[in-house]
Write a structure and sequence with these properties.
The chain has 276 residues and is of the alpha/beta class. The chain is built from ten helices and eight strands. The protein has a single domain, classed as Rossmann fold (3-Layer(aba) Sandwich), CATH 3.40.50. The longest helix has 15 residues.
Amino acid sequence: MPTFSASDGTLLAYRSAGEGPPLVCVPGGPADSLYLGDLGGLSAHRRLIALDLRGTGRSAVPEDPSSYRCDRLVDDIEALRVHLGLSRIDLLGHSAGANPATQYAARYPDRVGRLALIAPGARAVGIEITGETRRALARSRRDEPWFPAAFPALEAITQGTGSDWEAIAPFLYGRWDDAAREHQRASGPDNMEAVRLFGADGAFDPAATRAALGAFTAPVLVLAGEFDLNSPPRSATELADVFPDASLVVQRGAGHYPWLDDPDGFVAATAAFLGR
């Protein structure tokens, strides 16, 4: 597995799969990039360069824990660009990984060719998601066999009285089948300190980020899953509105991992955008 040194000397690792122009992929979590797989076959169109965020997967634990902060991860993306010898990168961020990806675009707009935000988190631009928004979207799945057990757990979490995250896992997938269960088991964060410090004080400056992105001229794709409670279509729509040149795609029948729910549909939409 190839590695490179971050600006603070931390040794970071990344996975490379596929052929064609490189696409730097930033996972959510913060987590190991393994759960991204080949993004449903997107590797047939682009060479996927999937970063293991510091302290996860095969990337080293940093000496300074404050470097887990989201805005500090922007430096790691820049170090990877330099390591790859690219003047500009096409950049994909999934889930929480969309936050450092958007912050990178705000800080280094001339170094981004295209920006794809998949099931994106949007704390970097100050978009909040209410518990009622999540519950309303969850109710659209009331006919699913797992709903009677999952919905009370979701209500408890959104009201601050519960923490059974495993019980609500079906809400993150378009189909709660064996493949989804296996993916869920393999997708959890492996460094809770990195998770805890990701959004520490100073990690986000939404007003400044929004102002910078208002002048960001590169094409942007915001792709949301129809049923995604983590990154609902409503918040994805708000995020797309931040950019001057953004395309919004809501993938029908998909959850938080749209390349699993409909690989062909996901790849068609994403590859078309990247090749535009």
